[in-house]
């Protein structure tokens, strides 16, 4: 029985398997193979990758990421994935995958004494509710992942969490014992959820299997939960941890700004005088606590009519530049009202977004963080 045709040749640990189509000029299939190109040429690869937890078909990261990068982001080894793809190409069927090859790599027990290292921690803040902080957080995280960075989101909006819904996550967080706990002691820790593109997420909406459960907690408890999400979670070593803060300037933002080692704050505003005034209060709080404001993003800045291309300032003229000047920070972007983004967020498919704004926001954040050199010590959880 002839094997499935493919223009890909398998390259793994230096060995070459025969090409299914000897007459074609083969492209190499190995650690550096782009995932989107692979799936387009070899459709069964989508099913193979899904067996390893790499849900690449609807993931916006796949056009930027190689097999090796995707495996690393999910904590997997690339070699078993490439070997399974080779078998699938030759047989036309998804091979049996060993359970150990599907399990994320764990750090050595001795390393858990430090839990995780975060190269940068950034809070997303407004002071005003309803300006789209959670969506902006999601867009930043997606953009950073498309730059092949390891990213996590701590949903600090304990009583009104949106992040799990936006990413389509519903399964409650798993609990594992800390391998670094002293002998004879148990120390349960939360395991972050993973989005389709391997963004690690912790949220109060993932503490229960019912997403409409109300968290009826007062201020001190909220602050304690945020600290637990930071300290008592088996985070991976991350390039960026983004913290989505709730509105206001009270307990939750104070806990993050005063207790956590953050590198800076991104302020989100909208073109409305009332919103601008409240965002200025948030900026003043950040300045009083001597934390840097990395940039300003104005959401819902305008609307482009799809039929005429006319631009409408639905909420009035932009105040973005004025807010940026008062915050003493650069203006990252002015985001339009986009029904497509809202639809993807409502359906939990935000990672399918095909908009360069994600990368533009990520690049602006990377430049702002780079412009503010941090101390030599990286942030570690004790």
SSE blueprint and pairings:
Elements: E1 8-12, E2 15-16, E3 27-29, H1 35-41, H2 44-51, H3 67-73, H4 78-91, H5 99-102, E4 117-125, H6 133-145, E5 151-155, H7 163-167, E6 174-177, E7 188-191, E8 193-194, E9 200-202, H8 219-231, E10 238-244, H9 251-259, E11 264-269, H10 273-288, E12 293-298, E13 303-304, E14 311-312, H11 320-327, E15 331-334, H12 339-346, H13 357-370, E16 379-380
Parallel strand pairs: 1-3, 4-10, 4-11, 5-9, 5-10, 11-12, 12-15
Antiparallel strand pairs: 1-2, 4-16, 6-7, 8-9, 13-14
Helix pairs in contact: 2-4, 6-13, 8-9, 10-11
Would you write up a description of this structure?
The protein has 382 residues and is of the alpha/beta class. The chain folds into two domains: 8-102, SP0561-like (Orthogonal Bundle), CATH 1.10.3910.10; 110-380, P-loop containing nucleotide triphosphate hydrolases (Rossmann fold). It is built from 13 helices and 16 strands. The strands form four sheets. Strands 4, 5, 8, 9, 10, 11, 12, 15 and 16 form a nine-stranded mixed beta sheet that branches. A hairpin with a 5-residue loop joins strand 8 and strand 9. The longest helix is centred in the C-terminal third of the chain and has 16 residues, at 273-288. The model is unreliable at 1-26, 107-114 and 375-382 (pLDDT under 50).
Short description:
With 382 residues, the protein is an alpha/beta fold.
Low-confidence spans:
1-26, 107-114, 375-382
The CATH architecture name of the largest domain reads 3-Layer(aba) Sandwich
Percent range of helical residues: 25-40%
Name the CATH homologous superfamily of the largest domain.
P-loop containing nucleotide triphosphate hydrolases
Instruction: Please indicate the percent range of residues in DSSP E strands (runs of 2 or more).
Output: 15-25%
Query: Mean of residue pLDDT?
Result: 82
Give the H and E element order.
EEEHHHHHEHEHEEEEHEHEHEEEHEHHE
Per CATH, the class of the largest domain reads Alpha Beta
